[in-house]
Amino acid sequence: MASKHDILSVLQDVQSGALTPEDALLHLKLAPFEDLGYAKVDYHRAVRQGVPEVIYGQSKTKEQIGGILAAMEKRGSRNILVTRIGQEVADYLAEQFPLRYEPLAKLAVALPEPVKGHGSIVVATGGTSDMGVAEEAAITAETLGNRVTRLYDVGVAGLHRLLGNLEPLMSARVVIAVAGMEGALASVVGGLVDCPVIAVPTSVGYGASLGGISALLSMLNSCASGTSVVNIDNGFGAGFLAGRINQMESAKE
């Protein structure tokens, strides 16, 4: 896997004369992506974004996911996130690669390595039913090097549960608020904290919740300043964005 360090090493080798400019150009040409026929594996993702390519598993066959992982493993990738996969696919992949699978989140971390967490991200849910999406967010953030605190089942139906956990909320750099039904949790949290709040509407709720659209619209119309919204059930997107914000703050220290 090409990284910023790898490219810097190539440039230093050219500077020292250990590598010709032509050989360096060939090295960089080979690095960007590999065409597997069914997927073009982006090896420069880590250079551009600091994180290897994430595999969206839904609608891919287990063989396709395995092929992508094998290609990334050859390039030295580690802690590869594979989202939206079931137990059967995870079992198939685990026969070929070291794999940590979280069934609640339907998320796997392939070729896992220890990661030191930095900063403070809080993931809060309105109810227990929102935990699958919340775990997708939390594990994503942790895998990308962030420290995560979970506050589950602290929704507005029992507001004292949230108010009893003000200390981790007040010390967080980012809060991810995950809620279905009417999605009120994001507005309440947004009115309590001085950090960015990422709202995640979930598809949890009765008929008029419209598969999460009611929560989505409520969060989009929040009057709490500093609140942003990702798509319905998009725990991965929230965890990734929270990690970016948290890492920016960590870099200032």
Automatic annotation (TrEMBL):
Signal sequence, start to end: none
Gene3D superfamilies: 3.40.50.1970
Record NCBIfam families: LarB (NF033503)
Domain PurE intervals: 119-251
Organism: Dysosmobacter welbionis
Gene Ontology biological process: 'de novo' IMP biosynthetic process
A matching Pfam family: AIRC
GO molecular function, one term: hydrolase activity
Identification of the protein by name: Nickel pincer cofactor biosynthesis protein LarB
